[in-house]
């Protein structure tokens, strides 16, 4: 509020009232006759002054002290957000081609029965691609498209190149691969999980809709989520910032030569930062930690592979933080650790 304007206006108003009331004390008798004659004019002048002050000063005070409010479009309650998803389903073995037809309707029924938060409305459609060559699918790259399309190939166990315990595999291109099983319920569950929770991620979309509608999630609803969704819910609840500091930390092993070029990594991260510059400003910096005994944080599984467990990640993060200088800034800091070793490492996440 403009207190200075209020005080000035109040003083002028008080003075006007005093002038309008006349001079009750210290006035000679000779002037009382003239004062009585001038009193109507004085009152009229005071009234005109009050009208001018409140008539012009009131709107001026309102427009000069009001808070600016951004304009938000309001949408009708019955409006829906329609999302069309095209699912391309194929097989890599001719013996599985006959099972592809009945499988389509079962998957569609499971997808339609799934819970989607209103006003979000997802329309599912499955396109039968038939028999496709596995090698060609692995090299099939993503093409630019304005629609949301999901590409899934069912691979027979004889053609499955991953570990037998791995049922789902996301290729480097646009195709995702599912290991075939003779148990139809398990196969449908694998396909439904891949489409619902990974490729389209309907629970995440529903969480975004609930957040935008300002619906509070109850504790039992959070407990019912899977551990991975609970972890992601924490990140989704973090308020976004207009500026971020990203530190790229290269951890060099004692026994490993320089197998990576840090300049190329920074160039790739720089390209990502340029894509977000219209929304978020990212300040990039890089650090190098030498003479690091990274093997102390690895474990060896039954197949002789080096694995980095959740406990090992926590110990590695503590060790890296102890050797870095703290960033004296109020901006949020994101740290990306790159482990530079000459042996393959498998990262394990229990969630």
UniProtKB/TrEMBL annotation:
Q: Where are the transmembrane segments?
A: 44-63
**A single GO cellular-component term on record:** GPI-anchor transamidase complex
Which pathway?
Answer: Glycolipid biosynthesis; glycosylphosphatidylinositol-anchor biosynthesis
Q: Which Pfam families match?
A: PIG-S
What highest taxon heads this organism's lineage?
Eukaryota
Membrane topology type? Multi-pass membrane protein
Spell out the subcellular localization from the entry: Endoplasmic reticulum membrane
Alphabetized InterPro entries for the sequence: PtdIno-glycan_biosynth_class_S
- Main location group: endoplasmic reticulum
GO annotation (BP), single: GPI anchor biosynthetic process
UniProt keyword terms in alphabetical order? Endoplasmic reticulum, Glycoprotein, GPI-anchor biosynthesis, Membrane, Transmembrane, Transmembrane helix
Family of this protein: Belongs to the PIGS family.
Q: What is this protein called?
A: SEA domain-containing protein
From what organism does this protein derive? Haemonchus placei
């Amino acid at each position: 509020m403009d207190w200075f304007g209020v005080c000035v206006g109040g003083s002028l108003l008080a003075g006007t009232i005093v002038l309008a009331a006349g001079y009750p004390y210290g006035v000679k008798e000779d002037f009382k006759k003239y004062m009585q004659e001038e009193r109507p004019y004085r009152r009229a002048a005071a009234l005109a002054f009050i009208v001018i002050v409140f008539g012009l000063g009131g709107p001026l005070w309102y427009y000069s002290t009001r808070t600016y409010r951004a304009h938000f479009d309001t949408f009708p309650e019955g409006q829906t957000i329609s999302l069309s998803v095209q699912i391309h389903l194929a097989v890599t073995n001719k013996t599985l081609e006959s099972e592809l037809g009945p499988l389509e309707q079962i998957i569609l029924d499971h997808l339609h029965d799934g819970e989607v938060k209103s006003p979000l409305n997802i329309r599912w459609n499955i396109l039968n691609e038939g028999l496709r060559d596995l090698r060609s699918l692995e090299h099939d790259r993503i093409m630019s498209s304005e629609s949301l399309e999901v590409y899934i190939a069912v691979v027979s166990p004889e053609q499955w190149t991953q570990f037998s315990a791995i049922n789902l595999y996301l290729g480097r291109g646009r195709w995702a691969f599912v290991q075939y099983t003779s148990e139809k319920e398990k196969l449908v569950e694998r396909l439904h999980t891949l489409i619902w929770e990974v490729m389209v991620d309907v629970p995440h979309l529903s969480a975004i809709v609930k957040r935008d509608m300002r619906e509070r999630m109850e504790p039992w609803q959070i407990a019912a989520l899977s551990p991975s969704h609970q972890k992601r819910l924490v990140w989704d609840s973090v308020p976004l910032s207009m500026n971020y500091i990203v530190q790229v930390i290269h951890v060099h092993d004692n026994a490993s030569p320089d197998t990576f070029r840090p300049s190329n990594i920074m160039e790739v991260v720089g390209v990502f930062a340029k894509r977000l510059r219209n929304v978020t400003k990212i300040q990039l910096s890089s650090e190098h930690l030498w003479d690091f005994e990274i093997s102390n944080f690895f474990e060896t599984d039954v197949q002789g592979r080096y694995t980095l467990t959740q406990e090992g990640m926590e110990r590695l993060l503590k060790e890296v933080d102890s050797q870095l200088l703290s960033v004296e800034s109020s901006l949020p800091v994101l740290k990306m650790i790159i482990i530079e070793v000459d042996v393959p490492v498998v990262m394990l996440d229990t969630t």
